[in-house]
Amino acid sequence: MPALEPSANLARRKRLAGAFRAATMLLTWLCLALLAVLLVHATRQGLPWLDLQFLTEFPSRFPERAGIKSALFGTLWLISLTAVFSIPVGVAAAVYLEEYAGRRRINALIEVSIANLAGVPSIVYGMLGLALFVRWLALGRSVVAGAMTMSLLILPIIIIASREALRSVPDSIRRASYALGATQWQTIRHHVLPAALPGILTGTILALSRAIGETAPLIMIGALTYVAFVPQGPMDAFTALPIQIFNWVSRPQAEFHELAAAGIIVLLTVLLLMNAIAVIIRHRSQGHR
Amino acid sequence: MENSSPVLEVRDLTIRYGASPAVKNVSLVIPERRITAVIGPSGCGKSTLLRQLNRMNDFIRDANMDGEVLYRGVNLYDSEVDAVEVRRRIGMVFQKPNPFPKTIFKNISWGPVINGFRGDLQELVRSSLERAALWDEVKDRLSDSALALSGGQQQRLCIARALALQPEVILMDEPASALDPVSTARIEDLMFELKERYTIVIVTHNMQQAARVSDYTAFLDAGRLVEFGETDQVFTRPEQKRTEDYVSGRFG
């Protein structure tokens, strides 16, 4: 008998393996193709409208004069304030849960709750924000109310990503620190947090980029759809990029649909930039190890 | 035994993880400026015992103890004793080198700085590295990352890091088990030099190493202290049959 005679069903097993490989590849390309169609469509419609004037003009009922200045600045305000609110709270919560909290039952409950909160539809956060911040705290339809609502929305994501980053810090670092007579806070402050920082930053940027794209909670808390000014302070009314896009899309004239496409290009550019920063941070931190 | 005074004394120590005991009723006296080796088969409780000597077991959930560990006559587990202070006085070197992902200089200086060291930090870093026989290899690259060092160098850096706190006792948990033979020999040479100033307790599963470096040897089996005495005697004229079987390689 020859030494390497193929076993009886080898050919069939190899066909199956090949088919599975082809199927996964096909589905991957399908996703990418859909994304490409969206991009091409938006670019073809929007690109002619995309110029400096588009970025520096306020919205107008005349399409040729309309721009997204107020929406762009509104989004910048919104995201900056959201970052200010959500990052300290989210990271602190993650540090508590990961480093301080024991394995008591209440902590397991908190953990499950946070995981569930990450899956709650954003409109629900909008309702909470409306009741809590707009009405009860009487913040009105302000940037600060919007940012607080967005913070609630992305807090679970930040907490989960930060916990993941903290958990990936090897215990040997903590033990080395304690063995030198460090307190728990010194250990966290000087060793655990710095080692987890790239992971925390990546997760946070991705969470913030989710907040940039969210529309439903902002509509819910009553962010205005037509704003012809830039917010001067956190208590001012505002609009944001996705709301402006939504507003344009819902008009009957084709020109406004093309403006919406241009707005989508701006929004996607901002999102891709943020995600690129996240990738760079992750890549850098791996290079250092 | 010769008349060196005890630095550490373990009295009737039982350590349990949850309900199952890992160390059972161990008593032993660790003499000053000597190397005491703790040997025994895997899972005999030797590392558990070592970690109890500087309260590193505090971090292990469910670990609990009976008995006493005395350092210069003070019970380390007395409610008035702060574990942070204990660990500053009783240093530890781990099985796998675990330098901080920072510069070589910072690895050494961090411990003293957080413990309120006031003095010449440069000099302290230098003398610590010299005592760990690492100075000549790293003096020109103190601001390089410690992770760029070889495994053996990293372990000596960890020893230097422990020395920088000017401890009286250094606990070593299989400090050479992750290293190649040349690096291992350097660590062993270093231990000989260090015992001039420090009391060393080393846990090892390498019996040749215990025989080479230590003055006293404790043999642990299944959590019990089977035999404790001068290394020569334990290895050449053990009192217990079990010890003889182990040191002659019949089990473990």
Assigned CATH architecture of the domain at 6-98 and 167-247 in chain B:
3-Layer(aba) Sandwich
Spans of chain B of at least 5 consecutive residues whose pLDDT stays below 50 are none
Strand content of chain B: 25-35%
* Radius of gyration based on Cα positions of chain A: 24 Å
Shape field of chain B: globular
- In N-to-C order, the SSE pattern of chain A is HHHHHHHHHHH
| C-alpha end-to-end distance of chain A | 53 Å
Round the mean pLDDT of chain A to the nearest integer and report it: 86
Number of helices of chain A: 11
Major beta-sheet overview of chain B: 6 strands, mixed
Number of domains of chain A: 2
Using the alpha-carbon principal axes, give the shape of chain A: flat
In the CATH hierarchy, what is the superfamily of the domain at 6-98 and 167-247 in chain B? P-loop containing nucleotide triphosphate hydrolases
Q: How confident overall, as mean pLDDT of chain B?
A: 91
Sheet with most strands of chain A? none
Number of strands of chain B: 10
Our Rg estimate of chain B from Cα atoms comes to: 18 Å
The total of beta strands of chain A comes to 0
Brief rundown of the structure:
The complex is a heterodimer of chains A (289) and B (252). Chain A is mainly α and 289 residues long.
Description of the structure:
With 289 residues, chain A is mostly helical. In chain A, 75% of the residues lie in helices and 0% in strands. The N and C termini of chain A lie far apart (53 Å). In chain B, helix 3 (104-114) crosses helix 4 (121-131). The two termini of chain B are 27 Å apart. In chain B, 47% of the residues are buried. At the A-B interface, helix 7 and helix 8 of A face helix 2, helix 3 and helix 6 of B.
Pick out its properties.
heterodimer; A: flat; B: 252 residues; alpha/beta; Rossmann fold; 6-stranded mixed beta sheet; 10 helices; globular
